[in-house]
């Protein structure tokens, strides 16, 4: 073999040459019954255990939910809850009893849940200014905060509908006459406190207008420490959502009864929203969520069923695989 | 209408005509932006995107940052604009180079070196050997004493042989020194693009003799971009300059061709657009209703009681913007990209390189590769396309004696050799005509051998054959010819050359024998152009027989004739001829008329038969492509019998009992009509039988059929899979293509010569063979290939793959846009129908332009079946022809899949991430990564063959998605800060992802498997067979490689004169009864067919 020949062969084998000839080495997977049945079998064998583990984890989470929005309106006002909630002169105190049905290990997360509340409404989501939250009044272009941008010509800090509608119900928890210690620190994301909300930005001109939305803020505390606000400003994508209120750092035993003293300030009555208080433990999965487990089991078992069906089909209709004599043009030429 | 060019007049014409500045540029620096933008915005898709982008500037309605549309839009525009700009800049550079080239021009009587762009009409330009001609010139002087010069015109018409040009008679003999001072006027037509015609007159002013008008033809010109060869110097008068030269005028931008696939994609885009409008209207109304009933109660949204007048429009417009991604902005870019890659694959293909000439195949038009896979009709030229166009003199018949019948080669026929040795008058006359009745130029090489430069292959063959028979054409000096016959030199003076035209079908020369002063007219031409003009009393019967016999063997015949002229007759005629050749209007017609006055009363000398061999692999290629369901039409200028023989030998028409040939003929309307109807009737009857019925028609009948019976002929064209059209003109070829195109068939025209250019340009796909007749066809074509057999690979491999790949790519592009769009729509139902976007701007933009566009690009390497399988089962092309892979129903499948996947992603996401996890940014990233995972698996499932590139693109893209999002999550200023890190730490995120993949792909996989195994398409069956690697049934399988070894044995050169029946066998072919024709066709072709099989 001469040198030129060898050289030519080498160039022919370079990857680029093969690419230009569209003849890069390729593997051609074909959906053979063996492969497909194995795939479905494997899916079943993986998803069912995963689903069971997930379900177990979900079941190990103890969750107590108490809806209080209706109960906390005194009987006489139930016909017109809106005027009740809007009347500042009526005290809004309310007490609820929550029974722990299972041992709950600390930390126990306290959430408030709002239903039928559209934090994802376009008008609402857009109405905030991240720059202002970080830089305060130094940042002037707050047009995105419409319609809660200015009040008496003065900028509002924090501006926008989201901040303006801050949730302002408050809860205290009493077990056997002793107040449970609720940790309200570190409920917001650390990244938000450090990088999204200014350490030197203090509320200004907030809730001073004619229309008062939700909660007020202490103008002396910088925004980065207003954790309720930070939690609230992380808008939810779904119309039912829970937001962290605090943590109980004591274990709760089964059959403990917890008295919740709450101040029912927040108006969900005008749009038929629900308010719930949730106490929940947590594990690697997060909160209680059976969906993942159920879905995994369903997917896994339907995969198994498919695998069985395909096996049966394969056994019953053994088709000669890839028989080109089935091609019409070959059939014709065979007969003719 | 006319321009008058004053030679060497420095002032007068400067203002009238443009200077010689060549400009091929489309843009200038100033008008680039507006002009380019205008062009881009004239497309509907671009207008749509611009509208969307403008709407997004209105912050009240825009769901996302306007950058998510403006970014890609500007990118797309920038890419195509910079491509244009780059091309234009290169044109500018090459123009500049040409414009600033230094040339010698006479100014104020002195030769000066000036830039080419400063040449003006009327200037005298001097050229040296090997100079490029800077503008169109009329020759006035050359170094040659006879006023000849040689030019190479390959840049103009692709013909590589040298052409002679001569100075006008009026300028003959003007002294070299005086040329500077020459004055005169040239009357010439306004610039046009016809490079074969120049009808002008020249008149020189005193003191230059001759105040006569001297006619000028294209022979007296040298055109821009030609090269001066073999001539020391030449000078000429500039007549057309700058962009007004013949070359400049013929430069034009051809109409862009649109593939059937593009049309289908446009249609689907339209459908999606309608769907989008419906969705927008429904959601818009729902949104407004919800706003008025619910949102007003929601105090935290703080809707004003009275909105502005446009309030009702706000929500629909928001949804319009939200849904605008339904029409993917990336599809245009992706398609352009992959199409140019398809074209590159054709250029690169080492199996389509013509190793004889080293010319690779080339795709000039990069946009229509998919159409190759959808071809239904192929219109092919014969000479040079199916045959090699390498002419070899095989047989002849001189005064009734057949030479070469036994051996198949007249040059070895001892009888002929002895006749030559014995100086038999007939034979000598015959050889003389062969040797000098042509326009061949003999060139003596340094070794002393004589090379012939001929414009036509036939002439070349004849001159060479004559030389081998000791009649050597030695030299040509201006008007004197020298031939050497058996060591005696004979000189002839050429008086006139009556050139060949396709109308006259013959050419003649008038020569004067220098020894005895006799004037003779020598003619050669087609039989019907010579034999009817034989003198009364000559028996032409043997010649007719000879012609028929040769044609039946597939040989090209020419009749040779001569006539002695008297001096008076010649002089009288010569005057008429001069007058005719100096007319400006209808010159060609006038000359033809004058010529017929001389060309009569011939003494027919004999018939020559020239063989034109079939190219390698032609029968196999035709058979394979016919199996692939492609209909073949042969359009040729040749005789019917020759065409039929060629057709038989290259599997064009099948032999008995499969085939049947019907004939349409007739000289009058009635005859043609009757014959057409008869053929049509037979066609209708036999169309149900599995039989190849072909029809043959000649140019004359075709003319009548197309003019008067267009409807019947169209029906015939649809019914017939094969047709042979003989003696058709270039314009008829184009008309036939037009006819088939009007019936909605995809047509491919393939040819090699200038006469095929119109057909090639007319067809959906034009393929040119870069053959011996120059590059004209190859230049006009969309694809140029070196050999006919490459057509098989071009269609079955490149066309088919391109179609499959584009089908997947385009539908996938819609699918992925629809997925994300459906999710947005579903989300709007849980966000108060207010038009909130679930995804942020960056993700949306990256999803469309990056995450989903990159992996699918790797599908340009996808092969559903290997090349070998496709070649063995060409029938599989049917899927492409019928558009089975991209049509509304396949699209509906993709639409359904996108809806299903959107539901899977959305439902799983909102349930897995409910309540305390429902934070907006997190949820949107979960949904987005769900989509990305699904995309990866969808592409993987739809990929038939995985190369390393596909793996990299699909899985690398998935990794890139995470890397990119981690980077974004690390930037504190971005909205996604820390989100991706949080998600990746959550086990529930990964469980959700696997759940989405399993729920989304499981049913798709199951369905695909079921169909693949239990309802397999033909493609699936072949894939399985390929996989099994078992013996694939190869009925009728043909391997071209085996055949090509046997190329020496040409099926055409079978000589079997003894077995031939006295009456020509093909005669019943033309008879009325289909049965008889069938039988005869069978018997005739089966012999050659069995031979074919033996070759295998």
List keywords for this structure.
heterodimer, A: 336 residues, four-stranded antiparallel sheet, 11 strands, 34% helix, extended, disordered C terminus, B: alpha+beta, nine-stranded mixed sheet, nine-stranded antiparallel sheet, 37 helices, transmembrane helix (chain B), magnesium ion binding (chain B)
Write a structural description:
Chain B: It catalyses: ATP + H2O + phospholipidSide 1 = ADP + phosphate + phospholipidSide 2. Chain B: Residues 101-162 form the P-type ATPase A domain. The complex is a heterodimer of chains A (336) and B (1096). Chain A is α+β, with helices and mostly antiparallel strands. Chain A is built from eleven helices and eleven strands. With 1096 residues, chain B is an alpha+beta fold. Chain B has a nine-stranded mixed sheet, sandwiched between helices. In chain B, strands 17-16-26-25-24-23-22-21-20 form a nine-stranded antiparallel sheet. In chain B, β32 (765-769), α24 and β33 (783-785) form a beta-alpha-beta unit. The radius of gyration of chain B is 36 Å and the shape is elongated. At the A-B interface, α3, β3, α5, α8 and β9 of A face α8, α30, α31, α32 and α34 of B.
Overview in brief:
Chain A: InterPro entries: CDC50/LEM3_fam (IPR005045). The complex is a heterodimer of chains A (336) and B (1096). Chain A has 336 residues and is of the alpha+beta class.
